[in-house]
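Task: encode each sequence below as structure tokens.

Item 1
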Amino acid sequence: MAPQTHLGAQDGRIRRWFTHMGRPLPWRLPAAPGPHPGGWGVLVSEFMLQQTPVDRVLPEWSAWLRRWPQPSALAGDAPAEAIRAWGRLGYPRRALRLHESAVRIAEHHGDLVPADDASLRALPGIGEYTSGAVRAFAYGQRALALDTNVRRVIARHDHGRAFPEGAVTRAEAAYADSIQPRRAGASWMAAVMELGALVCTARQPACERCPVASTCRWLALGRPEGPPPRRQPKYAGSDRQARGALLAVLREAGGPVRQADLDCAWPDAAQRARALDGLVADGLVAPVTRGRWSLPG
């Protein structure tokens, strides 16, 4: 059962704060000026924002939408172009899945990103969170988008816990659904997400600037500590860095590259081979001839 002062009951205060303090992100309303980018713009932003900070995404998102303003534009280019344009956003499989989604949207949905959960989740790379985010932020539907920021704000304000526990459970999703306002649920979701990103942050929450501090259970309990969220594994020297180094050579090349070029990109032979095998398995790199490699398509 939701507490009487649950976060949904603070809808007005949270959304007023969001109107005045939210960042003017181009894929979001009501904080963003100008025309809304629609389902495609929101979908691209959600793919890019997975495990990547907003400040790194902003210029890449704008460049992407200028080059490929609708799904069919991206679908008409080779997957290699999507991987090249992805640059250093990280986790380049997202670029491949986005290209695959663009092809399906162009072929089966009239070049419009679908607005229903079943159709969205049938697209490559789209799960429960991304479907909810697109439906909420592109189409204004009352849909859950439980990212780490939203989960943390609810855990603190309603339950007095410093952090949510593990992956989203059915109980957690059901609780969030029960407190999401019936009206303006999409803008409430965006506001809570922004509150977690700017104020109720993981490591240095600014409770003095929080619009719902007076009803926050965690603050009332003296901000008890809890198990912190798991840190990302170290990037330097990792297989991820090795993959990125090899992929950078392929992105910058106009065509196939020799094995010798890849050998120069990463010194550890065993790790280099492991990274290259992984890129091939993920469909990000394709063998051309013996000892020559290229991006797919």
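Item 2
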Amino acid sequence: MTTLKDAYKDYFYIGAAANARGLETHRDLLATQFSSMTCENEMKHMSVAKAPGQYDFTVADKMVDFAKENGMQMRGHCMVWHAQAARFLYQNPDGSYVSRETLIANLKAHIHTYAQHFKGRVNAYDVVNEAIDDKNGLFLRRSFWTEIIGDDFLDIAFTAAALEDPDVKLFYNDYNEWYPDKSEKIEKLVRGMLERGIPISGLGLQSHYNVSCLNDFDNIRRAYERYAKLGIDLHVTELDVSCFDPEDKRTELTEPTSEMTEKVALFYEKFFAMLREYKGVVKSVTFWGIADDYTWLDNFPVRGRKNWPLLFDINHQPKEAFWRVAQF
């Protein structure tokens, strides 16, 4: 059978996000179909930092070792994020914020521990995740990073990461990257970093879509045209396509309708055709999941709802969307 990694060996790496359980339940599919892997949560700060100065990389190491054993690229996700960060990173025992100097020291210490532990086993890091504000007219998201350190926390993080491992690729990663206002802000952020000489290698485009995004394809293409001009690598980092448009709140479906299946397949077909056009810039494409039996979109954003956003069905068999992507 055609595999994704063989179909795209001359274009870009094809990856999937996995968790510790999926490493067992989806092991064969992951090793057979994909040439890259990302940990869903197992490398985030809260998952590895157990107490100040105390780390446990046991689960992450198991996943990184699996990637190496199967000749896969490994993306490190993620070093710096406002979410899923243990409070001792930025708070004193009494709940007050630490000082700017302390948080910078904690940030650098985390990056040092993280980068040195995985050195030589990780090909790219999402150094900073989701720092842009979603609201029009605002630039950086307000978080403990900006409140304590200031907007220069990104420059500090990327500079520290580059000093730890000059051979690894360093990415800024964000979602809704095709929205016109947000794409302008992402471009502004990255271009400013490049102009200041900050060592950023690439831009991670999360790419969480839904079937209504077929109507937004012009904005998606314009975003790629914008980002391609930055002169850095582009990675699609968290790709999936929800069967539901934002207004559809149904929870009674036990399988996707034929209309949903066709729309998902059509979106993937158009999206990958576009990505192939940008193969000189797009270096990696990662799905946020492996097969439909497990996806973060189950119960989100609608509780009690099953979703089917990936290329393989709940039985790990290729769907119509798979064939539209793999055969071109």
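Check on item 2: Residues 4-326 form a domain with the TIM Barrel fold (CATH 3.20.20.80). The chain has twelve helices and eleven strands.
End of task.
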